[in-house]
Amino acid sequence: MPVSQPAPRPAGLLSGHSGAGVLTIGELLRELSGEFPQVTASKIRFLEEKGLITPQRTRAGYRKYTAHDVERLRFVLALQRDQYLPLKVIKDYVDAIDRGERPDSLPGGMTLSPRVVSDQLSRELSAHTRRLTAETLAAEAGAPRRFVDDLVSFGLIAAVDNRFDEHALKITRACVQLESHGIEPRHLRPFRAAADRELGLVERVVAPLASRKDVASKARAAETAREISELCLGLHSALVHSHIARMDS
């Protein structure tokens, strides 16, 4: 089935933008809602985690989406919806475009313009995809090497081919801050156990989709798993904060 392509917009012209040709995630959802009514913030964050888009961030950490981010999202979402292509195939294509290559056209005849990457964004992209040694992880998290070893031994982080990813860095930084309150890595083993239980729950829910052979079902299973995990995290946070609020009552 051919992909219906929206009329191209001039670069930088976005409806309802908050200024300077960039959008917040809420404005981005409104921009896409006409063509993709089912898209959610969780879906956009999932695509970001997979490296398909890399929005710039403010100093406070808020995401800002450019006209090219919107074009790229439309491209990815249309290929998923109409051609059922796996994200890896789509990512390989957009990465090739950004390297200045001219890959073969994808089904539906859609094309994507290259991304113009600033020096700052290029550094951010490099940081997003790099893998860290234990020594580099410790240095960036502000922790001694033995602290990283403790996190590994208690199952809080794990290396793949002796390298740690971005998630391991976030976990290590959080554990360093918790240690400043007297909470050591050995105290955090219940978090690992709770995460494993949550993962087991998610896997049971998406098992019917994940067991299918077609790539569209596997993509939907991954998206559903992420949405459920986001809801579980929200529930956990609400439960904890409801108890903390009682301290003031």
Automatic annotation (TrEMBL):
Molecular function, one GO term: DNA-binding transcription factor activity
Residue span, HTH merR-type domain: 38-96
Keyword line: DNA-binding
InterPro entries found in the cross-reference section: DNA-bd_dom_put_sf, MerR-type_HTH_dom, MerR_fam
Gene3D superfamilies, alphabetized: 1.10.1660.10
Pfam families: MerR_1
Residue intervals passing through the bilayer: none
The protein's name in its UniProt record: MerR family transcriptional regulator
